[in-house]
Design brief:
Order of helices and strands: HEEEHEEHEEH
Number of strands: 7
Largest sheet: 5 strands, mixed
Number of helices: 4
Low-confidence stretches: 60-82, 202-215
Strand order of the largest sheet: 4-3-7-5-6
Radius of gyration: 43 Å
Structural class: alpha/beta
Distance between the termini: 91 Å
Shape: rod-shaped
Mean pLDDT: 76
Length: about 220
């Protein structure tokens, strides 16, 4: 019996020659699987981070593969487009005076201003201070407080009218019609000027398919 024969074999099994079984370490499949999973997780994080960067630079709006809108963020209005604290036409009382030789001009203008929502005060001929002395389209006159409130609003109805202030204590303003006056600014243009001044009429959001507003 060879010395290489395991005890108890009784010589039934012999190992001959110079070859013998080698003991191999088991393959570390666990580490390989872990490495693959870790790599996939890192790639997933990189992809997610890329999508977040895309959202930041595109305003947070993108389209999914199915075509539906996801992560839609409504942009806030900038300070320059925010509505200004100005009175509306219904809060402004206007006296209309005619400084021209043409008759009926003050009443005709006052009626049109009333249709546009302004409150009408006195209507008639201008005082001697202005009668036949206004060479432009007209003069808007009010208290100092009206220079940045009521007069700009009234000015949307008569482009190029001069603006002045005096020492009056009330909030009523005057419209004195001058030699170059023919009519008030067209209703459509006046409304656009008023909307631009107050920011009260922003552009509507576009409507997508299915009646849903898009960002």
């Amino acid at each position: 019996m060879s010395m290489l024969t395991p005890p108890g074999m009784g010589g039934q099994y012999r190992i001959t020659g110079d070859k013998y079984p080698r003991m191999r370490r088991p393959r570390r499949r666990g580490r390989l699987v872990f490495a693959i999973v870790a790599s996939a997780a890192v790639l997933g994080l990189i992809g997610w981070g890329s999508l977040q960067l895309i959202d930041v630079f595109t305003g947070g709006s993108r389209t999914s593969a199915a075509g539906s809108k996801v992560n839609c963020v409504k942009a806030s209005a900038s300070p320059t487009t925010a509505a200004r604290a100005l009175p509306g036409p219904a809060q402004i009382t206007v006296n209309v005076f005619n400084a021209t030789p043409r008759t009926g001009l003050a009443k005709e203008t006052a009626d049109e201003l009333k249709k546009r929502g302004f409150r009408i005060g006195d209507v008639g001929n201008a005082t001697k201070e202005y009668d036949k002395k206004v060479t432009g389209v007209g003069v808007l006159i009010g208290p100092k407080a009206s220079l940045d409130t009521s007069l700009p609003v009234l000015g949307t109805q008569l482009a190029n009218a001069e603006r002045r202030t005096d020492t009056r204590t009330g909030a009523t303003v005057d419209l004195v019609l001058g030699d170059r006056f023919t009519s008030l600014t067209g209703r459509t243009d006046a409304d656009k000027a008023l909307a631009a001044l107050t920011g009260s009429s922003p552009s509507p959001s576009p409507v997508g398919k299915g009646g849903k507003k898009s960002c």
